[in-house]
Amino acid sequence: MKNKNPVLVVLQLTGGNDFINTIVPYSNPHYYDARKKIVVPEDQVLPIDDNIGFHQNMAPIKELYDQGSVAIIQGIGYPNSSRSHFRALDIWHTCEPDTVGTEGWLGKAITALDPHQENVLTGVNFGRGLPRALSSPGVPVTSVGDLDNYGLMTPIENKAERSEALKIFKSMYAPAIGNGPVMDYLSQTGQNLLIGADMLKVAPINYTSEIEYGNNQIAKGLRDVARVHLANLGTQIFFVSQGGYDTHSTQTPVQPVLIEDLSKAINDFFQDLRNHNASKNVTMLVYTEFGRRMRDNGSGTDHGSGGGAFIIGDSIQGGLYSEYPRLEPENWENGEDLEHTIDFRGVYGTLLEQWMNIEPSEIIGGQFEQIGVF
């Protein structure tokens, strides 16, 4: 690899992943008291210690954990957590829980990395739309659906679809920040988006791999991240997401499949990079907008607060960070939620300062406790 600058891959689990059934407190009776139906039996847990363990479908992540390449951030959240998907994502994307933010934390990070906007590929999103986390006026970010059928949010060749995608972007953000800022942003960055999408054409050309990624959304997304990273195009921030985690109903058949796809895709991704001697400068953050409530609803779980995140990479110090939320009913927030034990802005600050070498306070809105993961 020619480009040894630090690279951050941000992977969003959209919908609110149930942390309790991902990192399972299998020896705690309060877990089984609260979860009557949506529960992971002890014989389906891969123990980390005598108290908690991975859901068995997370075996590929457990493999990386055992290698020292996974940090589990327990109880991540923020005070007075929002249960609204849109508002919660907005808070995680802008680091502004008290006001509606207009600039994303990753957009600001891109400004710090590339202040003169010399590379329209410093930040790349794979997926439809442009996440608020990456948006900042004048900051070039390239957003493509996928590399095999690439385009600006939707395939670039289809002008009607591209126009519709821009309408979606406007409809998502205009109610919160007004038409003016949205249109200003699109006018400032639209041409760069087009240029960046064209530049990404080269990424698949010379890519070869022994890894057979899965045929699902997150596997394809991480394969695209690997291809762009290996093409040495100078991208330092990637954003990719996996949807489907809003499991109010049918959680038992749904969530295990999602975390299995996720775990295998992440393991494949890092093995792919290792095979190309290109993993040492890549760190991944996996997060979700909120956790789920302690008690299930009989078919699924409802929006909660404190959740969990993962920092993954070959240059981190793996292990358990922060404290697992207390499970005794008297310690539940609002009488039904997990408490948060570490502020997500401190985790962002850790990644920005310790990994990306960016001063974080203006980006995350203050000083927050960091963790010693690097």
Walk me through this protein's architecture:
With 374 residues, the chain is of the alpha/beta class. The chain has a single domain, classed as Alkaline Phosphatase, subunit A (3-Layer(aba) Sandwich), CATH 3.40.720. 34% of the residues lie in helices and 15% in strands. It has 10 helices and 12 strands. Strands 1, 5, 6, 7, 8, 9, 10, 11 and 12 form a 9-stranded mixed sheet that branches. A hairpin with a 5-residue loop joins strand 3 and strand 4 (53-55). The longest helix is centred in the last third of the chain and has 25 residues, at 251-275. It is globular and about 55 Å long. Residues 151-158 have low confidence and may be disordered.
Count of DSSP strands? 12
H/E element string?
EEHEEHEHHEEHHHEHEEEEHH
Largest sheet: 9 strands, mixed
End-to-end CA span:
21 Å
**What is the CATH third-level topology name?**
Alkaline Phosphatase, subunit A
Number of domains: 1
